[in-house]
Amino acid sequence: MSNSCEKAYITTPIYYVNDIAHIGHAYTTIIADTLARYSRMAGLETFFLTGTDEHGQKIEEAAKSRGKTSQAYADEISATFKNLWDDFDISYDKFIRTTDAEHIKGVQKAFSTMHSNGDIYKDTYKGHYCISCETFFPLIQLVDEEFCPECGKSTSIVEEESYFFKLSKYEDRLLEWYAQNDDCILPRSKKNEVIRFVEGGLQDLSITRTSFDWGVKLPEDMNDPKHVMYVWLDALMNYVTALGYGTDDANMDYWPARVQLIGKDILRFHAIYWPAFLMSLDLPLPKHIAAHGWWTRDGEKMSKSKGNVVNPKEVADAYGLDSFRYFMLREVPFGGDGDFSQKALIDRINSDLGNDLGNLMNRLIGMSGKYFEGKVDSSLVEKYYQVELDEVHASLAKLEPLLYEMQLHRYLEELWRPLTVANRAIDKYQPWTLIKEGKEEEAMALNGLIAAILAKVSVMLYPVMPEICTKISTALGFSINHDTWTKLAMGTALLETFTLEKIDPLFPRIEEPLLAQIDPVDKKEEPKKKENPKKKENQSKPTEGIALIGIDQFFQTSLKVGTVVQADEVPKSKKLLLLQVDVGEETPRQIVAGIKEWYSAEDMLDTQVCVVANLNPAKLMGHLSEGMLLAAKDKDGLCMIRPEKPKTSGTPIG
Ligand code: ME8
Questions:
Q1: Which of 236, 265, 339 to mutate to test the pocket of ligand 1 (most atoms within 8 A of CB)?
Q2: What separation in Å is there between the alpha carbon of 262 and the centre of ligand 1?
């Protein structure tokens, strides 16, 4: 997101109503909610859209199998999504349903416009169709010439009369758009995938179906009642029909969207079809399409059709909504995949939230209560603690660009630095010693420093943890709004003198998993569809002398293919090389590897390696190391473990 326009339109995908929401859906919606809350706090006129995608064969079949009409079934499931977002206090401005009359009118208007612009023609389509993904795939993309490359289910051959959209006509303009708008697709690594796909050649897109009914009919003047619109044309249009496109245009001044959030599974639809449709309609293109990775269970994408989903409501009820929100955004770099485990969630709650944030609040309550009857006076903070304040303000200044770049995990990481400054200051200056030495003024200033840091952090953390931050700010005697954001978070203001309100500990320590049904995994029965046999897991054999672990434990280690893009020696070290390794993220990781006895920097440059990507960063001879390389060592020496063939940087290993 750039900061150049006054209005900010933020969207999530509209979710299929073939089953209820899982944490993957909650993830997208929570990210969008975070951006919308930040954008409002930053003073932008914000419109946040979410909703449900209700047409298509998949929904028709799901309804039939439950003995319901498609509409009744869609009503029921759509309400479960809406209720969940309401329970989660998601700050959407509109919840759209593709069965809304205004949406249907808007889609028909779009069809007519594309048709009169010469972008739609009639022909016959024959292809392999995956109902689960509502997508045609060319034979070459199928696994064993039958199974869907996305979900592994059996595809069927469909031959029917169809209207086509001239997607091929837009190839050059799409490539031009990607080239001219560096950050139109985030993370940027994903943009390269899209460019390669488009450069491979685009085929015209079949945009109507005759084999089922549950869809938007063509505009009446097309005089072709047996066709309904392809669900993706119908669904993508929601982003503008929600603003009144095709009806009253009431909110079209919010278009183009500032950021359209999606999962990487639907990048092609959003980064290729959607801009091409917009070009055909002569509408401007979105500023950013931001694709996040997948939440997995035991390394497999969590999805309704696989039945391996985690219920977000259960998790939020057990662990607290704000903690869940923090975990999701902090745990996984935007764009990467993450395996959901209660252990990781508990670690984040106890460590980041409990030790660093909650405990700091307790320390402030303790200090100010014991020595100053709860009073906090900030007037002398600058006199005694300017160095600490400078450090805090330097961190705060880095935050907004990270959010606009969708680097949410880095945003939170950076936001934790002021908390470290605060906790370190208490340990270093020791208020109890200051009081003992009669330095009351310094002790009060320290109090003021800690309160100011908590205030500044709570403002910038508010979009991620609204409830907790409201509690903190209330205790600190101020409200979080555009004014306090400007003064405390963007500026260097401190708090007015106030009396601190005592509050209960924010994050009581969690000793063991609270949800028995999530760990160990309780997989529901697999759907009875024919599955790609290659997808079956190998049974593991017990191995003597080695402690066995479950597959879920193995998948807690994130292994990725990396490419060494820079290699240097570490001065004065006999063993270490300093490597910059591209693991498919925004910037390469720095890894310090103890391999110099066997490999020179030159040997390593431009080679591929296997990287352990989720280790805690460590410092080796003063250099930060953000990962580890896999190698095998025996009596003859050490050799790197590498992919047998070149693989895209960041490809997961497992
Ligand atoms: O694709 N991890 O709807 P959908 C992370 N109706 N995010 C996940 C996820 C996972 N395991 N599973 C789903 C559709 N999501 C279409 C969209 S838009 C015009 C039409 C999230 O119900 C992620 O945002 O299958 C993904 O893109 C979306 O849910 C897909 O939801």
A1: 265
A2: 7
Confirm or reject: Cβ of 266 under 6 Å from ligand 1. Answer: yes
Which is the closest atom of ligand 1 to the Cα of 52? Answer: 6
Is residue 78 lining ligand 1, measured as CB closer than 6 Å? no
- pLDDT for 192 equals 93
Q: Decide if 596 is inside a domain.
A: yes
Helices (H) and strands (E) in the chain, counts: 23, 27
Q: Ligand 1 pocket, 27 CB below 6 A? A: yes
SS3 of residue 454 by DSSP: helix
- Interatomic CA distance for residues 573 and 323, integer angstroms: 42
SS (H, E, C) 593-639: ECCCCCCCHHHHCCCEEEEECCCCCEEECCEEECCEECEEEECCEEE
CATH of residue 372's domain is 1.10.730.10
Domain that holds residue 81: 7-315
* Same-domain check for residues 28 and 139: yes
CATH code at 569?
2.40.50.140
Measured CA to CA, the distance from residue 417 to residue 394 in angstroms comes to 10
What's the chain's average pLDDT? Answer: 90
Question: Ligand 1: which of 10, 11, 27, 328 to mutate, most ligand atoms within 8 Å of CB?
Answer: 27
CATH of the domain at 35: 3.40.50.620
The residue out of 499, 517, 535 marking a domain boundary is 499
Q: pTM value?
A: 0.78
Does ligand 1 come within 6 angstroms of the Cβ of 97? Answer: no
User: Does 350 map to a domain?
Assistant: yes
> Tens digit of pLDDT for each residue in 573-603?
888 899 999 998 877 899 999 899 899 998 9
